[in-house]
Amino acid sequence: MGRTETWQRAFYARDLAGTVILMGVPTSKMRLEMPLIDFFSRGGSLESSWYGNCLPERDFPMLIDLCLHSRLPLARFVTERIGRADMGHGFHTMHAGQVLRSVVVL
Q1: What span, in angstroms and rounded, lies between the C-alpha atoms of 2 and 22?
Q2: Which of 54, 71, 99, 101 is the most exposed place for a label (fewest CB within 10 A)?
Q3: pLDDT at position 53 over 60
Q4: What are the extents of the domains in the chain?
């Protein structure tokens, strides 16, 4: 889940002509409040990214193929492996920013 505070800080920290890309998926209740003149006067662009702006029907098979042929080292992105009974702990560590990715082992 994305955080509005992070997005807003990134907007004000970027170069005046820079780009901010929202990558965390917000909930339907999240709102961003900011003066519209700030957006207008600072230029640049604001974008969102869903799956890295890939086309899943095209790109997922290619990524799977890369993984199967050991050309995409996904294991480097897994911080911990947890069981179903530990999912509460997994959500806690994720929200606390203590892990990059938890994988639930069934």
Answers
A1: 8
A2: 71
A3: yes
A4: 1-72, 75-106
